[in-house]
Amino acid sequence: MTPNMRVKLQRLRGVKIGKNVFIGSNVFLDDARPDLITIEDDVTILVGTTILAHVYPPDHFRKIINHHEQAVVLKNNCYIAANTLIFPGVTIGEYSIVGAGSIVTKNIPSFSLAYGVPARVIRSYSKDDII
């Protein structure tokens, strides 16, 4: 399947997707609440990335793990490298980069490079540095 076909399919599922978005192969966007995912313009999401917008624990864990649904937003021009995991409630800021294999549990500010497990901001930069 081509990247354009993947974008069209995700739009049909209810994911809000802007213009010029690239979705790589084997990208998983939440199966229960795709409507809580927003991907703005010029975003790149590479192979093997998973974006979750909900946590539904089995009944026997509900006393220790809360059921919750929270929006995930990928702002304009952000770049999500391969095999990244993004948790519910996270916003990735404009022109930010998330390094490969990262687990993102908290918001990443605009104009930031973040990576790791859990992901943390390694470097900030300005628009002049990249454009």
What value does the Rg take, in angstroms? 15 Å
Strand percent estimate? 25-35%
Number of beta-strand segments: 16
Mean pLDDT: 96
Which quaternary structure do these chains form? single chain
Strand order of the largest sheet: 2-5-10-13-15-16
Question: What do you see in this structure?
Answer:
By secondary structure, the chain is mainly beta. The chain has one domain (3-124): Hexapeptide repeat proteins (UDP N-Acetylglucosamine Acyltransferase, domain 1, 3 Solenoid). It has two helices and 16 strands. The protein has helices at 3-13, 127-130, and strands at residues 16-17, 22-23, 28-29, 37-39, 44-45, 50-51, 54-55, 68-69, 72-74, 79-80, 85-86, 91-92, 97-98, 103-104, 112-116, 119-124. Strands 2-5-10-13-15-16 form a six-stranded mixed beta sheet. A hairpin with a 2-residue loop joins β15 and β16 (119-124). The longest helix has 11 residues, at 3-13. The radius of gyration is 15 Å and the shape is globular. The N and C termini lie far apart (31 Å). The model has no long low-confidence stretch (mean pLDDT 96).
